[in-house]
Amino acid sequence: MDLHDTITIEELDKPYFVWFEDNWRHDDILHTHKKGQLVYVESGFQYITVDGKIYLLPQNHAAWIPPGFMHKTNSHSEKIKLMIMFADTNPNISFHHEINVFSVPPVLKEMIKYAERWSKNTSKDQDEMLFLQALFNELPRFVEHSLKLHISLPKDKRLSEPMEYLHKHYQEDIRIEDLSDIVLLSLRTLERIFKKETGMTLSKYQQILRIIKSLELLSSGDLTISETAYKVGYRSVQAFTRSFQSVMQTKPTDFVKTTQ
What we know:
alpha+beta; Jelly Rolls; Arc Repressor Mutant, subunit A; five-stranded antiparallel sheet; four-stranded antiparallel sheet; 9 helices; 9 strands; 39% helix; disordered N terminus; HTH_AraC
């Protein structure tokens, strides 16, 4: 469902607005809002492009999108339940102007679910305002351990073909030499461009790709941890667990428990 078909967020004369919907379909065209936006994935998973980076929102994770940031969705699971909340922001609070993707703690989860009672309410409500004011005031503390789980979209066109190959074959053992052969660039030049465009080495980028894909698979609930590990290219569950823990700061078993 496209939110803009029925309600224009910018025209609402209230500091907060709540929108919950089953089978939500967020805009897949780049757009911005004057308000900040909290996107919570209750079930399923969602990819969101914000400010030139693609972020994964697994189940029970949320993203804070600052006002004025261009964003859109890329893809999502077939069954997804998103909860969207908009809020006026304070220009003097640095958090309001930073993108954050984070695991939603139990207290915030309950607060978000409680706020569903005001979904699509376009009129002013004092109880709604006080409750959501408290929620958003606490939001910076809820995201203190936010993830940096994203992949950058390269602007250098010379990376288009090797990046496409990498995204299709991330589960294979890929060397930087393989990509340099594809794009006909010297190894040194490709390494320099790759690091400049993505902010990381090829091995780190491939690790992030694998973990993002594993989170997508774990969120679907169709595969075991062992099956997921081999599916994304790890040769053992132990290697997958170590890699997963280094990126997510939690074990795959902990993640599965929190999403079921």
